[in-house]
Amino acid sequence: MKKIPFLLILLLSVSVFGQRPFPPRKPGSPKTPKESVPEATSSKKAGANDFLALVRVVKDWGFVDESGSFAITPQFENAKPFSGGYARVRSMGDWGYIDKKGAYVINPQFERAEDFSDGLARVVKFKKWGYVEKTGTFAINPQFDDAEDFNDGLARVRKGVSWGLIDSKGSYVVNPQFAELGLFSDGLARARVGKEWGYVDKSGKWIINPQFDDAEDFDGELARVRKGTQWGYIDKSGTYVINPQFEAAGNFSEGLACAKKMHQWGFIDKKGIWSVNPQFDQAGDFSAGLARVKKGREWGYIEHSGTYAINPQFDDAMDFNKEMARVKKGTQWGFIGKKGLYVINPQFDQESEFVNGFSAVRKGTKWGFINTSGNLVINCLYSDAENFSK
Question: Were 310 and a residue from 25, 113, 301, 344 both cysteine, which residue would form a disulfide, CB within 3.0 to 4.6 Å?
Protein backbone atom coordinates (compact mmCIF):
# COMPACT_ATOMS: atom_id res chain seq x y z
CA MET A 1 0.00 0.00 0.00
CA LYS A 2 2.94 2.30 0.63
CA LYS A 3 3.91 1.91 -3.00
CA ILE A 4 0.63 3.42 -4.27
CA PRO A 5 1.23 7.02 -3.07
CA PHE A 6 4.70 6.84 -4.55
CA LEU A 7 3.37 5.70 -7.96
CA LEU A 8 0.71 8.41 -7.90
CA ILE A 9 3.33 11.09 -7.21
CA LEU A 10 5.53 9.72 -10.04
CA LEU A 11 2.68 9.69 -12.57
CA LEU A 12 1.63 13.19 -11.58
CA SER A 13 5.22 14.48 -12.10
CA VAL A 14 5.47 12.92 -15.57
CA SER A 15 2.10 14.40 -16.53
CA VAL A 16 3.10 17.89 -15.42
CA PHE A 17 6.46 17.66 -17.21
CA GLY A 18 4.78 16.53 -20.43
CA GLN A 19 2.58 19.59 -20.37
CA ARG A 20 5.46 22.03 -20.02
CA PRO A 21 6.10 23.89 -23.24
CA PHE A 22 9.37 23.19 -25.08
CA PRO A 23 11.90 26.02 -25.09
CA PRO A 24 11.00 28.40 -27.90
CA ARG A 25 12.99 27.91 -31.11
CA LYS A 26 15.39 30.64 -32.05
CA PRO A 27 13.80 32.69 -34.77
CA GLY A 28 15.38 32.21 -38.20
CA SER A 29 17.38 35.03 -39.72
CA PRO A 30 14.93 37.38 -41.37
CA LYS A 31 15.06 37.38 -45.14
CA THR A 32 17.03 40.30 -46.39
CA PRO A 33 14.71 42.56 -48.34
CA LYS A 34 15.61 43.07 -51.97
CA GLU A 35 17.79 46.11 -52.29
CA SER A 36 18.08 48.39 -55.27
CA VAL A 37 21.77 47.40 -55.38
CA PRO A 38 22.38 43.62 -55.29
CA GLU A 39 25.54 42.55 -53.51
CA ALA A 40 28.37 41.47 -55.79
CA THR A 41 29.71 38.02 -55.04
CA SER A 42 32.99 36.29 -55.72
CA SER A 43 34.98 33.15 -55.01
CA LYS A 44 37.40 32.96 -52.09
CA LYS A 45 40.24 32.80 -54.60
CA ALA A 46 39.95 36.42 -55.64
CA GLY A 47 43.03 38.40 -54.61
CA ALA A 48 44.13 42.01 -54.74
CA ASN A 49 47.04 41.29 -57.09
CA ASP A 50 45.37 38.81 -59.41
CA PHE A 51 44.88 39.43 -63.10
CA LEU A 52 41.23 38.92 -63.95
CA ALA A 53 39.48 38.68 -67.31
CA LEU A 54 36.06 40.10 -68.06
CA VAL A 55 33.67 37.56 -69.61
CA ARG A 56 30.00 37.44 -70.51
CA VAL A 57 27.75 34.42 -69.99
CA VAL A 58 24.57 34.93 -72.03
CA LYS A 59 23.55 38.40 -70.74
CA ASP A 60 25.56 38.71 -67.51
CA TRP A 61 29.15 39.84 -67.07
CA GLY A 62 31.63 38.46 -64.54
CA PHE A 63 35.36 37.88 -64.09
CA VAL A 64 37.48 34.73 -64.32
CA ASP A 65 40.95 34.08 -62.93
CA GLU A 66 43.83 32.50 -64.84
CA SER A 67 42.55 29.00 -64.12
CA GLY A 68 39.21 29.82 -65.72
CA SER A 69 37.37 29.75 -62.39
CA PHE A 70 34.96 32.55 -61.64
CA ALA A 71 36.57 35.05 -59.30
CA ILE A 72 33.46 37.21 -59.54
CA THR A 73 30.33 35.42 -60.68
CA PRO A 74 28.40 36.76 -63.70
CA GLN A 75 25.80 39.17 -62.35
CA PHE A 76 26.25 42.54 -64.04
CA GLU A 77 24.30 44.06 -66.92
CA ASN A 78 27.54 45.50 -68.25
CA ALA A 79 31.11 45.79 -67.04
CA LYS A 80 34.55 47.01 -68.07
CA PRO A 81 38.00 45.50 -67.40
CA PHE A 82 39.86 46.24 -64.17
CA SER A 83 42.08 49.29 -64.09
CA GLY A 84 44.12 50.18 -61.04
CA GLY A 85 42.34 47.59 -58.91
CA TYR A 86 38.80 48.81 -59.69
CA ALA A 87 36.28 47.75 -62.34
CA ARG A 88 33.24 49.65 -63.58
CA VAL A 89 30.03 47.62 -63.51
CA ARG A 90 26.40 48.35 -64.29
CA SER A 91 23.53 47.01 -62.23
CA MET A 92 19.87 48.02 -62.31
CA GLY A 93 20.73 50.54 -65.03
CA ASP A 94 23.38 52.41 -63.04
CA TRP A 95 27.18 52.26 -62.95
CA GLY A 96 29.35 51.70 -59.87
CA TYR A 97 32.77 50.31 -58.99
CA ILE A 98 33.91 46.99 -57.51
CA ASP A 99 37.24 45.79 -56.13
CA LYS A 100 39.08 42.55 -56.91
CA LYS A 101 36.98 40.66 -54.38
CA GLY A 102 33.80 41.66 -56.16
CA ALA A 103 32.66 43.98 -53.38
CA TYR A 104 31.20 47.35 -54.22
CA VAL A 105 33.51 50.19 -53.30
CA ILE A 106 31.08 52.65 -54.88
CA ASN A 107 27.47 51.54 -55.25
CA PRO A 108 25.83 51.82 -58.68
CA GLN A 109 24.39 55.33 -58.94
CA PHE A 110 25.82 56.93 -62.07
CA GLU A 111 24.47 57.20 -65.60
CA ARG A 112 28.00 56.81 -66.94
CA ALA A 113 31.36 56.16 -65.32
CA GLU A 114 34.99 56.01 -66.44
CA ASP A 115 38.21 54.61 -64.97
CA PHE A 116 40.14 56.39 -62.23
CA SER A 117 42.99 58.65 -63.30
CA ASP A 118 45.12 60.68 -60.91
CA GLY A 119 42.86 59.48 -58.08
CA LEU A 120 39.61 60.77 -59.60
CA ALA A 121 37.04 59.24 -61.94
CA ARG A 122 34.67 61.15 -64.19
CA VAL A 123 31.02 60.19 -63.89
CA VAL A 124 27.63 61.38 -65.11
CA LYS A 125 24.89 62.21 -62.64
CA PHE A 126 21.68 63.94 -63.75
CA LYS A 127 23.15 64.25 -67.27
CA LYS A 128 26.14 66.28 -66.08
CA TRP A 129 29.78 65.22 -65.68
CA GLY A 130 31.60 65.46 -62.36
CA TYR A 131 34.46 63.68 -60.61
CA VAL A 132 34.41 61.28 -57.65
CA GLU A 133 37.08 60.07 -55.26
CA LYS A 134 37.61 56.35 -54.59
CA THR A 135 35.22 56.61 -51.65
CA GLY A 136 32.47 57.62 -54.04
CA THR A 137 32.33 61.16 -52.66
CA PHE A 138 32.12 63.90 -55.24
CA ALA A 139 35.39 65.81 -55.37
CA ILE A 140 33.91 67.99 -58.14
CA ASN A 141 30.14 68.18 -58.39
CA PRO A 142 28.41 67.31 -61.68
CA GLN A 143 28.26 70.49 -63.75
CA PHE A 144 29.98 69.91 -67.10
CA ASP A 145 28.50 69.01 -70.48
CA ASP A 146 31.54 66.85 -71.25
CA ALA A 147 34.76 65.98 -69.48
CA GLU A 148 38.01 64.08 -69.90
CA ASP A 149 40.29 62.25 -67.44
CA PHE A 150 42.71 64.05 -65.14
CA ASN A 151 46.30 64.02 -66.33
CA ASP A 152 49.12 65.72 -64.43
CA GLY A 153 46.62 67.45 -62.16
CA LEU A 154 44.49 68.96 -64.94
CA ALA A 155 41.35 67.86 -66.78
CA ARG A 156 39.67 69.14 -69.93
CA VAL A 157 36.00 70.02 -69.47
CA ARG A 158 33.30 71.45 -71.71
CA LYS A 159 30.64 73.98 -70.78
CA GLY A 160 28.20 74.58 -73.58
CA VAL A 161 30.29 74.43 -76.75
CA SER A 162 33.62 75.55 -75.26
CA TRP A 163 36.44 73.62 -73.60
CA GLY A 164 38.61 74.73 -70.70
CA LEU A 165 40.86 73.29 -67.99
CA ILE A 166 40.17 72.62 -64.31
CA ASP A 167 42.37 71.54 -61.41
CA SER A 168 41.61 68.71 -58.99
CA LYS A 169 39.47 71.05 -56.86
CA GLY A 170 37.26 71.90 -59.82
CA SER A 171 38.55 75.45 -60.19
CA TYR A 172 39.11 76.75 -63.71
CA VAL A 173 42.78 77.07 -64.62
CA VAL A 174 41.74 78.04 -68.14
CA ASN A 175 38.18 79.26 -68.71
CA PRO A 176 36.12 77.51 -71.41
CA GLN A 177 37.07 79.21 -74.68
CA PHE A 178 38.20 76.56 -77.18
CA ALA A 179 36.08 74.74 -79.73
CA GLU A 180 38.37 71.72 -79.25
CA LEU A 181 41.24 70.98 -76.90
CA GLY A 182 43.66 68.06 -77.09
CA LEU A 183 45.88 66.24 -74.62
CA PHE A 184 48.91 67.95 -73.15
CA SER A 185 52.25 66.51 -74.21
CA ASP A 186 55.39 68.05 -72.75
CA GLY A 187 53.39 71.11 -71.76
CA LEU A 188 51.56 71.80 -75.03
CA ALA A 189 48.08 70.89 -76.26
CA ARG A 190 46.45 71.41 -79.64
CA ALA A 191 43.48 73.75 -79.54
CA ARG A 192 40.97 75.08 -82.04
CA VAL A 193 39.16 78.39 -82.22
CA GLY A 194 36.95 78.92 -85.23
CA LYS A 195 38.35 76.73 -88.00
CA GLU A 196 42.05 77.00 -87.18
CA TRP A 197 44.29 75.01 -84.87
CA GLY A 198 47.22 76.12 -82.75
CA TYR A 199 48.91 75.03 -79.50
CA VAL A 200 48.48 76.36 -75.95
CA ASP A 201 50.33 75.87 -72.68
CA LYS A 202 48.68 74.90 -69.37
CA SER A 203 47.76 78.49 -68.64
CA GLY A 204 45.80 78.69 -71.89
CA LYS A 205 48.33 80.99 -73.53
CA TRP A 206 48.91 80.54 -77.25
CA ILE A 207 52.44 79.25 -77.80
CA ILE A 208 51.78 78.52 -81.46
CA ASN A 209 49.04 80.75 -82.86
CA PRO A 210 46.02 79.23 -84.62
CA GLN A 211 46.97 78.82 -88.27
CA PHE A 212 46.53 75.15 -89.24
CA ASP A 213 43.57 73.44 -90.89
CA ASP A 214 44.13 70.36 -88.72
CA ALA A 215 46.63 69.32 -86.07
CA GLU A 216 47.59 66.34 -83.94
CA ASP A 217 49.12 66.06 -80.46
CA PHE A 218 52.85 66.43 -80.05
CA ASP A 219 54.62 63.09 -80.12
CA GLY A 220 58.07 63.69 -78.73
CA GLU A 221 59.41 66.90 -80.23
CA LEU A 222 57.24 66.96 -83.35
CA ALA A 223 53.55 67.36 -84.19
CA ARG A 224 51.70 66.66 -87.42
CA VAL A 225 49.80 69.59 -88.88
CA ARG A 226 47.78 70.11 -92.04
CA LYS A 227 47.77 73.20 -94.22
CA GLY A 228 45.21 72.97 -96.99
CA THR A 229 45.33 69.34 -98.10
CA GLN A 230 48.96 68.70 -97.18
CA TRP A 231 50.49 67.41 -93.95
CA GLY A 232 53.86 68.40 -92.47
CA TYR A 233 55.61 68.49 -89.10
CA ILE A 234 56.40 71.36 -86.73
CA ASP A 235 58.56 71.67 -83.64
CA LYS A 236 57.49 73.28 -80.36
CA SER A 237 58.30 76.75 -81.57
CA GLY A 238 55.84 76.28 -84.43
CA THR A 239 58.57 76.16 -87.05
CA TYR A 240 58.21 73.70 -89.88
CA VAL A 241 60.74 70.91 -89.57
CA ILE A 242 59.14 69.15 -92.54
CA ASN A 243 57.06 71.34 -94.86
CA PRO A 244 53.48 70.30 -95.68
CA GLN A 245 53.75 67.98 -98.68
CA PHE A 246 52.04 64.69 -97.80
CA GLU A 247 48.49 63.50 -98.43
CA ALA A 248 48.60 61.76 -95.04
CA ALA A 249 51.24 61.04 -92.41
CA GLY A 250 51.76 59.16 -89.15
CA ASN A 251 53.72 59.67 -85.94
CA PHE A 252 57.40 58.81 -85.79
CA SER A 253 58.28 55.40 -84.43
CA GLU A 254 61.81 54.02 -84.32
CA GLY A 255 62.97 57.14 -86.17
CA LEU A 256 60.63 56.76 -89.14
CA ALA A 257 57.07 57.81 -89.95
CA CYS A 258 54.75 56.48 -92.64
CA ALA A 259 53.70 59.12 -95.17
CA LYS A 260 51.53 59.13 -98.26
CA LYS A 261 52.33 60.77 -101.58
CA MET A 262 50.72 60.22 -104.97
CA HIS A 263 48.35 57.72 -103.33
CA GLN A 264 51.21 55.50 -102.17
CA TRP A 265 52.74 55.02 -98.72
CA GLY A 266 56.43 55.08 -97.81
CA PHE A 267 58.52 56.08 -94.80
CA ILE A 268 60.36 59.33 -94.04
CA ASP A 269 63.03 60.26 -91.52
CA LYS A 270 62.85 63.31 -89.24
CA LYS A 271 64.27 65.53 -91.97
CA GLY A 272 61.48 64.57 -94.33
CA ILE A 273 63.74 62.49 -96.56
CA TRP A 274 62.32 59.26 -97.93
CA SER A 275 63.95 56.32 -96.22
CA VAL A 276 61.56 53.94 -97.98
CA ASN A 277 60.06 55.32 -101.19
CA PRO A 278 56.26 55.45 -101.58
CA GLN A 279 55.19 52.10 -103.03
CA PHE A 280 52.61 50.56 -100.68
CA ASP A 281 48.82 50.72 -100.67
CA GLN A 282 48.72 50.90 -96.86
CA ALA A 283 51.30 51.01 -94.08
CA GLY A 284 51.58 50.88 -90.29
CA ASP A 285 54.13 52.12 -87.77
CA PHE A 286 57.44 50.41 -87.09
CA SER A 287 57.34 48.15 -84.06
CA ALA A 288 60.04 45.74 -82.90
CA GLY A 289 62.05 46.63 -86.01
CA LEU A 290 59.32 45.78 -88.53
CA ALA A 291 56.42 47.65 -90.15
CA ARG A 292 53.37 46.10 -91.75
CA VAL A 293 52.66 47.13 -95.33
CA LYS A 294 50.02 46.23 -97.87
CA LYS A 295 50.72 45.61 -101.55
CA GLY A 296 47.66 44.86 -103.61
CA ARG A 297 45.45 42.70 -101.43
CA GLU A 298 48.13 41.19 -99.20
CA TRP A 299 50.07 42.30 -96.17
CA GLY A 300 53.72 41.69 -95.34
CA TYR A 301 56.42 43.28 -93.18
CA ILE A 302 59.47 45.37 -94.08
CA GLU A 303 62.68 46.35 -92.30
CA HIS A 304 63.88 49.95 -91.91
CA SER A 305 65.66 49.67 -95.24
CA GLY A 306 62.41 48.84 -97.00
CA THR A 307 63.48 45.25 -97.66
CA TYR A 308 60.80 42.65 -97.08
CA ALA A 309 61.46 40.68 -93.93
CA ILE A 310 58.18 38.82 -94.49
CA ASN A 311 56.72 38.79 -98.01
CA PRO A 312 53.10 39.92 -98.57
CA GLN A 313 50.89 36.87 -98.04
CA PHE A 314 48.30 37.72 -95.37
CA ASP A 315 44.74 38.94 -95.79
CA ASP A 316 45.17 41.22 -92.78
CA ALA A 317 47.96 41.94 -90.33
CA MET A 318 48.65 43.87 -87.14
CA ASP A 319 51.79 45.51 -85.73
CA PHE A 320 54.33 43.34 -83.94
CA ASN A 321 53.90 43.18 -80.18
CA LYS A 322 57.37 42.20 -78.99
CA GLU A 323 58.12 38.98 -80.88
CA MET A 324 54.72 38.13 -82.35
CA ALA A 325 52.15 39.68 -84.67
CA ARG A 326 48.53 38.79 -85.36
CA VAL A 327 47.81 37.87 -88.97
CA LYS A 328 44.78 36.70 -90.91
CA LYS A 329 44.77 34.03 -93.59
CA GLY A 330 41.42 33.59 -95.28
CA THR A 331 38.92 34.01 -92.46
CA GLN A 332 41.16 32.75 -89.65
CA TRP A 333 43.62 34.54 -87.37
CA GLY A 334 46.92 33.25 -86.01
CA PHE A 335 50.29 34.54 -84.81
CA ILE A 336 53.65 34.73 -86.59
CA GLY A 337 57.20 35.31 -85.39
CA LYS A 338 59.64 37.82 -86.88
CA LYS A 339 60.77 35.34 -89.51
CA GLY A 340 57.24 35.02 -90.80
CA LEU A 341 56.71 31.48 -89.54
CA TYR A 342 53.52 30.61 -87.72
CA VAL A 343 53.93 30.44 -83.97
CA ILE A 344 50.22 29.73 -83.69
CA ASN A 345 48.44 28.51 -86.82
CA PRO A 346 45.42 30.45 -88.14
CA GLN A 347 42.42 28.86 -86.45
CA PHE A 348 40.48 31.62 -84.70
CA ASP A 349 37.67 33.82 -85.94
CA GLN A 350 38.95 36.64 -83.77
CA GLU A 351 41.84 37.17 -81.37
CA SER A 352 43.47 39.86 -79.25
CA GLU A 353 47.00 40.83 -78.30
CA PHE A 354 48.69 38.81 -75.58
CA VAL A 355 48.38 40.38 -72.13
CA ASN A 356 49.99 38.70 -69.12
CA GLY A 357 50.60 35.63 -71.29
CA PHE A 358 46.98 35.21 -72.45
CA SER A 359 45.07 36.13 -75.59
CA ALA A 360 41.28 36.23 -75.77
CA VAL A 361 40.17 34.25 -78.84
CA ARG A 362 36.86 33.48 -80.51
CA LYS A 363 35.84 30.27 -82.23
CA GLY A 364 32.41 30.51 -83.78
CA THR A 365 30.32 32.50 -81.34
CA LYS A 366 32.23 31.61 -78.16
CA TRP A 367 35.31 33.10 -76.53
CA GLY A 368 38.14 31.49 -74.58
CA PHE A 369 41.84 32.10 -73.85
CA ILE A 370 45.10 30.71 -75.24
CA ASN A 371 48.65 30.90 -73.93
CA THR A 372 51.68 31.93 -75.98
CA SER A 373 52.10 28.33 -77.14
CA GLY A 374 48.66 28.46 -78.71
CA ASN A 375 47.14 26.02 -76.24
CA LEU A 376 43.53 26.66 -75.26
CA VAL A 377 43.95 27.06 -71.50
CA ILE A 378 40.41 28.34 -70.90
CA ASN A 379 37.84 26.74 -73.18
CA CYS A 380 35.66 28.76 -75.54
CA LEU A 381 32.57 28.96 -73.34
CA TYR A 382 31.78 32.66 -73.13
CA SER A 383 29.53 34.92 -75.18
CA ASP A 384 32.16 37.67 -75.00
CA ALA A 385 35.53 38.24 -73.36
CA GLU A 386 38.19 40.88 -72.73
CA ASN A 387 41.88 40.46 -71.97
CA PHE A 388 43.22 39.93 -68.46
CA SER A 389 43.81 43.12 -66.51
CA LYS A 390 44.38 44.32 -62.98
Answer: 301
